[in-house]
């Protein structure tokens, strides 16, 4: 048996398969397990990659071993291939068990039909060519936690067991003997332990539950988490266990209160309770008797009737690239110029494999997160490793849903209500997340808020990223809800660009230029009024019933700016409503970038407000929705248009009103 407790894998031979991509492999022993951590696979063309499913493997044992049971405890933090190799003659001739959870890369089955599901496969390789002996199309090829995998070979009978249950069997006599091996296909976290080979039959049953602990690799500076009106959480990490303490107070240099942990730990997480609403506090962090950081400050959440606040929006941060650091520096500069209450991260906090956040998040944003919280959401890269397990271990987020998960949540801030969704997991009708969304949108805190923001990773529409039109699942299942429940703004990432537009009175913002490689323009959507391929962050300033939105690039230059005015109600204006509708002249006029347009509706009816050039060509639609009687205001941002004369056309029922407007650069 090899349980790797000696800290090495002496006696195992590492073999990277033919035409390795993004190699070499990285086999290491960590905490008593043999782990392969490199996203390596064979062949460039997809049709070859998914035909062979080769990558890297390790082999040991005797070439003359014939009949034996080969057992291992396995865990995969990725969703790609893991498995066992047996009767291994050489790297071109052997049998193997391959388990694949990633349906997108499952390739073709034995009949040549795309699998399109997770698969369990028993194969032989003869002179480098794979032959499928048995296979299963399943909903899950292997569990998300530790599991036992067994290859039992007797004569020409080959059997594969998962947690003691037979999953595959075949008869074949091509290879009569050979060594054993462990394989990893495109997997950044293939874990193996308790490897045993016995001549007598032995089938591992399901292993005892193991608590997998994400290890602390280095010191992590303090960061603010989960602020409310009366509490806040401070987190940090130390290599050596210690009792964490936070000293705090309302006056700088006078920290007269303390909260402490009960026992020595490496992952420190201290909650401060009984705080005053909308109040600045100063704090210091101690690990044991050592001060771990200088005195810093934070502010608790504001009262719900507060009408002014600011926040930043960031997405697709990158992987410790210079562009990521420059965007981070501009975020700090913006916050130093005008305070921001928090940051919304629209996913892919980790632009890589989602397995290690210190270098790509906690260091680049260290000087920001020590003072303000980042309300994060899960991106597709964040869930690659352990379905977001590392992300959930690193961040302390609201968990106010029925399942008490931090994958999706809501919170109130001043006069606004925020809903974070996980678009990597199920949000279709009947799912837990769908129920949560509907409950959040009808919650009393949401109903009493002026503004409603929803943020998640995948956008319903996007103009950038070749061959990507936006997420159809979001279009089908979430967009109708956004429209029905009058969500004001939906914020997304995933596409590495800046984009904004309005459709059915919902404003859509893509802010995915935090540091990852930028995407190319692909398709034009009529309702997206501005888009650009640029590294950036977005700043949103809330002033009562008005939002000012600005995108700032990595050099501190303003890429775009627009203003959103909440539709005014009838009661908010003085004077009686005229018997007929109308369209006022815009103000200012002429204008350089944006202008305010006021109009009123006398009867319940469908209203459209459109902009045309003087040749009669439609430029954009500003409003297209059913209206109740009342006065309304909308802001038209024309940063994408050339100077000249344009026409406003308001259609209210069967009546049309027009005004000319002048754009001057």
Description:
By secondary structure, this protein is mostly beta strands. Helix content is 10%, strand content 43%. The strands form 9 sheets. A 7-stranded antiparallel beta sheet has the order 1-6-15-8-9-10-11, with no helix packed on it. A 7-stranded antiparallel beta sheet has the order 3-4-16-7-12-13-14, with no helix packed on it. A 7-stranded mixed beta sheet has the order 27-28-29-30-32-31-33, covered by helices on one side. A hairpin with a 6-residue loop joins strand 17 (220-225) and strand 18 (232-242). The longest helix has 16 residues, at 322-337.
Alpha carbon gap, first and last residue: 77 Å
Principal-axis shape: globular
Q: What's the total count of β strands?
A: 43
Number of discrete helical segments: 9
CA-atom Rg in angstroms: 29 Å
Strand-residue proportion = 35-45%
Q: Could you name the ranges where pLDDT drops below 50 across 5 or more consecutive residues?
A: 568-575
Task: Give the mean pLDDT.
Answer: 93
Structural classification: mainly beta
> Which sequence of strands runs across the widest sheet?
1-6-15-8-9-10-11
State the major sheet: 7 strands, antiparallel
| Helix residue percentage | under 10%
């Amino acid at each position: 048996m090899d349980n790797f407790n000696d800290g090495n894998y002496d006696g195992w031979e590492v073999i990277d398969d033919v035409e390795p991509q993004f190699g070499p492999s990285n086999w290491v022993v960590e905490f008593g397990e043999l782990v392969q951590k490199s996203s390596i696979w064979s062949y460039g063309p997809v049709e070859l990659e998914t035909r062979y499913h080769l990558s890297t493997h390790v082999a040991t044992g005797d070439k003359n071993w014939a009949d034996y049971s080969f057992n291992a405890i396995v865990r995969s933090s990725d969703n790609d291939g893991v498995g066992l190799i047996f009767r291994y003659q050489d790297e071109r001739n052997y049998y193997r068990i391959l388990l694949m959870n990633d349906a997108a890369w499952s390739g073709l089955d034995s009949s040549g039909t795309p699998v399109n599901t997770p698969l369990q496969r028993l194969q032989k390789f003869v002179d480098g060519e794979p032959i499928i002996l048995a296979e299963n199309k399943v909903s899950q090829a292997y569990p998300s936690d530790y599991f036992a995998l067994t290859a039992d070979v007797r004569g020409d009978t080959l059997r594969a067991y998962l947690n003691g249950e037979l999953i595959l069997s075949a008869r074949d006599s091509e290879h009569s003997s050979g060594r054993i091996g462990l394989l990893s296909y495109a997997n950044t976290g293939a874990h193996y332990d308790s490897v045993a080979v016995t001549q007598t039959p032995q089938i591992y049953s399901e292993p005892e539950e193991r608590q997998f602990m994400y290890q602390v690799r280095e010191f992590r500076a303090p960061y603010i988490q989960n602020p409310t009106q009366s509490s806040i959480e401070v987190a940090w990490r130390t290599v050596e266990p210690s009792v964490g303490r936070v000293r705090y107070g309302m006056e700088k240099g006078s920290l007269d209160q303390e909260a402490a942990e009960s026992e020595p730990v490496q992952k420190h997480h201290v909650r401060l309770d009984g705080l005053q609403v909308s109040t600045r506090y100063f704090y210091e962090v101690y690990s044991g008797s050592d001060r771990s950081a200088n005195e810093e400050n934070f502010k608790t959440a504001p009262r719900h009737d507060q009408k002014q606040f600011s926040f930043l929006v960031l997405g697709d941060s990158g992987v410790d690239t210079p562009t990521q650091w420059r965007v981070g520096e501009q975020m700090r500069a913006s916050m130093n110029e005008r305070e921001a209450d928090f940051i919304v991260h629209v996913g892919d906090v980790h632009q890589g494999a989602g397995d290690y956040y210190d270098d790509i998040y906690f260091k680049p944003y260290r000087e920001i997160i020590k003072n303000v919280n980042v309300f994060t959401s899960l991106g597709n890269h964040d869930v690659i490793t352990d379905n977001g397990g590392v992300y959930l271990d690193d961040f302390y987020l609201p968990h106010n849903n029925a399942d008490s998960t931090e994958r999706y949540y809501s919170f109130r801030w001043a006069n606004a209500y925020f809903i974070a969704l996980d678009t990597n997991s199920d949000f279709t009708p009947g799912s837990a997340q769908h129920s949560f969304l509907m409950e959040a949108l009808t919650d009393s805190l949401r109903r009493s808020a002026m503004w409603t923001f929803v943020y998640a990773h995948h956008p319903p529409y996007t103009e950038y990223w070749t061959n990507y039109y936006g997420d159809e699942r979001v279009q089908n299942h979430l967009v109708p809800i956004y429209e029905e429940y009058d969500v004001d703004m939906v914020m997304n990432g995933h596409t590495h660009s800046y984009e904004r537009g309005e459709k059915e009175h919902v404003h859509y913002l893509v802010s995915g230029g935090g540091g990852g490689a930028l995407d190319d323009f692909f398709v034009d959507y009529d309702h997206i009024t501005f888009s650009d391929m640029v590294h950036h962050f977005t700043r949103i300033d809330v002033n009562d019933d008005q939002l000012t939105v600005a995108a700032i690039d990595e050099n501190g230059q303003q890429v775009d700016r627009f203003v959103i005015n909440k539709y005014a109600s009838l009661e908010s204006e003085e004077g009686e409503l005229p018997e007929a509708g109308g369209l006022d002249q815009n103000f200012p006029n002429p204008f350089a970038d944006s202008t305010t347009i006021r109009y009123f509706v006398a009867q319940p009816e469908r209203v459209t407000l459109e902009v045309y050039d003087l040749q009669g060509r439609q430029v954009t639609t500003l409003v297209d929705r059913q209206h109740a009687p009342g006065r309304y205001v909308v802001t038209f941002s024309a940063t994408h248009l050339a100077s000249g004369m344009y026409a406003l056309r308001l259609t209210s029922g069967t009546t049309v009103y027009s005004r000319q407007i002048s754009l001057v650069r």
